[in-house]
Request: fold
Amino acid sequence: MQNFPWLTVLVAAPAVGALVVWLVPGPVRRHARQIAIGWSVVVLAVGVAMATQFDTGGGYQFVERYCWVPQFGIQYYLGVNGIGLLLILLSLLLVPLVLLAATKEQSTPSRQAHYAALVLVLETFMVAVFAARDVFVFYVLFEAMLIPVYFLIGSFGGENRRPAALKFLLYSLAGGLIMLAGVIAVWTQGPQGEQGFSLDALTGYEWGSVTEERLIFLSFFVAFAIKAPMYPVHTWLPDAAQAAKPGTSVLLVGVLDKVGTFGMIALCLPMFPNAARWAAPVVIALAVISIFWGAFLALGQTDILRMIAYTSVSHFGFIVLGIFAFTQTAAVGSSFYMVNHGLSTGALFLLAGFLIAKRGTQDMTQMGPGLQRTTPALAGTFLVVGLSAVALPGLSTFVSEFMVMAGTYQTHRWWAIISALGVIMAALYILLAYQKIFTGPKREDLTGVRDLSLREAWVVGPLIALMLVLGFYPAPALNTLKEPASDVLSVVDGARAPVAVLPDSSDQEGGE
Reply:
């Protein structure tokens, strides 16, 4: 089944589903959400079927390669390694859950169809960007996914949705324009020919000069840092998450932001290994700042969606730290962290949406205290998901966070020790949020608040189950990620320039 066009089917199917949802006649339109859910479940089943054919030791697989614009070396070139496969599966899982959770995102059948169709269009772009092996195609998808997100925030968000959508768009377009300069430079200074944008030809490519490689690297890295988001280009995220509906934030933070960190490990490191080693000290410092800056600001928030957004800034700091530590353990941990962050943060946003619907406010101080006396199932679920974000042993995030810190300790001992303090801050912002909402004496107006419904349990249940399974038995996922990490590090380790280390680094070699 390796010759079957799995990736093309996964890219095209959600787009076809979006068209179907948009074109359904008036009487049927009130069922647009159900149609979209059913369609997305079928797409998920196809993705799972593809995953069963994946060979963990086989490099890039399900490859589809056709010449598109030969004059510029642009190809329709798709393929996935272990990292891309798991991120695609994460995307396919979250879409039906978001659609199932979204009962009050729209006021009319027409708006319901519009919302569901935009989510399916976004699913097409999410799958395609994690499978793209042509740099030009990757750039086009990187920019195109802004369109459905902009309308999901601006049309279906809450208060201040339009300024937040505009800020998101401006930040993302600024990063995209910087990246475009790098894409043009890749064409003019790269291998050119019919494979001029192919990642195969660009991996380990000998650029004309040190300065040239560094400048092109920076053009890609800045775009990915904005998308990730990293300090200090992260300020668009809290505004977007606060204004967007929780379902939109699930896809925005749970999947789309991973395009930034995915781009770092899949494009920046193999294409510009010397520049990556040169930039590593500054990137690691910014990653550690992100860990503490995001956690510190999360502690001061009363808006639950804004709080979760800042926790993600902190978590992305761990992911970037592991990528630029240049060790096998840290690289696998960072890749696994991308998946686990999508599970835990996606569940947090979904639970936040349920809380907002039940209490009519995003202010945590107005949601409680004492809500656990009325909604014990919701309180327990929130606590389990929150503890996953804190990296409690037994839950999947612990494995990835431990691997990032252990791998970083091999090459940057003191940075690893310092970053570990971020775990303490994570416990604070999660437990304080839980205390504000659920513990303490029950307020009189909480008596009629309904507990977690069956539909809501079906939304978060699969995510919690995966957190537990991957927490106790992460081996299948780690085996899937091991070879991609080794491939990237082999390119970085073979770079001409000496490893750029921070003053507190040990003498150990990264990745050994």
Q: What stands out?
A: The chain is about 70% helix and 5% strand.
